[in-house]
Amino acid sequence: MGRVLQACLNGAREPGGHPGVPITPQQLAAEAAACAELGVTSFHLHPRDVVGLEVLAGPEVATAVSVVRAAVPGAGIGVTTGAWIVPDPVRRAELVRGWAGLAAGRPDFASVNVHEDGWLGVAAAAREAGVGVELGVFHAEAARVLLDAGVPEGTVRVLAEVRPGETVREAERLLELLAPLGVPVLLHGEDDSAWPVLDLAVARGLDTRIGLEDTLTTRDGLVAVDNAQLVRLAGAGAGKSAGS
Predict the structure, then answer these.
(1) What is the pLDDT of residues 165-219, one digit of tens each?
(2) Which CATH number among 3.40.640.10, 3.40.50.300, 3.20.20.70, 1.10.1040.10 corresponds to the domain 5-238?
């Protein structure tokens, strides 16, 4: 496996869209614990409110993170700052900045998508809150924006994401564009690109990720049971144990 295999547990998947997608803090914790037994030490999750909607507000973020952290002590736990959750970039940055006081519920890192309005402000807010930044780069245009702006302080890695319908060639192009930054890259795909891109990341020795956020199916196209099954398949595909 690549240097790190991150488990992306739920993402923006709609509640009920797949029976295994964890929504509540307790469900997230159970899924994280199952993946941790397979060696995973890095998790990405999308906290939800009581009706299952994604949120950036401190109380819900703190609850989700602290419950998961209790289940997987010592693991790195990250969350999203997606603009679709709070479209106003000023308010989004305010909410992220407020994570500073969350104590055990403060995430270790948060993804900030470079193509979204206000991304630099959100990245700065995360840094001020003591939260590391994963820079989401979804396409060549975003890569060029990042190259022009420079890597913000507090960045721990770049998330190079290959979107559905795109190929390994697009992944290679993205890696080539990002290479001058000299920042660790976690390469992953989504839906039909998830498995081919994961295999490319493994071959390149890059960090990667898998989970129900990125794909609902196994390598054979069957509906996955849960996150742990996907992690197990990712490790088997690389010929090594997951998380190594």
Answers:
(1) 999 999 999 999 999 999 999 999 999 999 999 999 999 999 999 999 999 999 9
(2) 3.20.20.70
Query: Nearest CA to 68 among 23, 38, 100?
Result: 23
Q: Which two structure tokens, joined as six digits, stand for 145?
A: 């924006």
Tally of CB atoms within 10 A around 45: 27
* 43 Cβ contact list (under 8 Å, min separation 6): 6, 7, 8, 9, 32, 35, 68, 72, 75, 76, 77, 78
Token pair, residue 84, equals: 């679709």
Report the C-alpha gap between 215 and 234 in whole angstroms.
12
Give me Rg for the CA atoms of the chain.
Answer: 16
Side chain identity at residue 218, one-letter code: T
Strand locations in 81-131, DSSP E? 109-113
Q: Cα(176)–Cα(146) distance, rounded to whole angstroms? A: 13
Q: At what angle do helices 227-238 and 194-204 cross, to 10 degrees?
A: 40
Using CA atoms in the order 19, 138, 207, 102, what is the torsion angle rounded to 10 degrees?
-70
Contact call for residues 231 and 210 (beta carbons, < 8 A): yes
Give the amino acid at 7. Answer: A
pLDDT tens figures, 114-148:
999 999 999 999 999 999 999 999 999 999 999 99
Angle between helices 119-128 and 89-97 (to 10 degrees): 10
Tokens 């390469």, residue? 187
Dig out the tokens for 204 from the structure: 């390149």
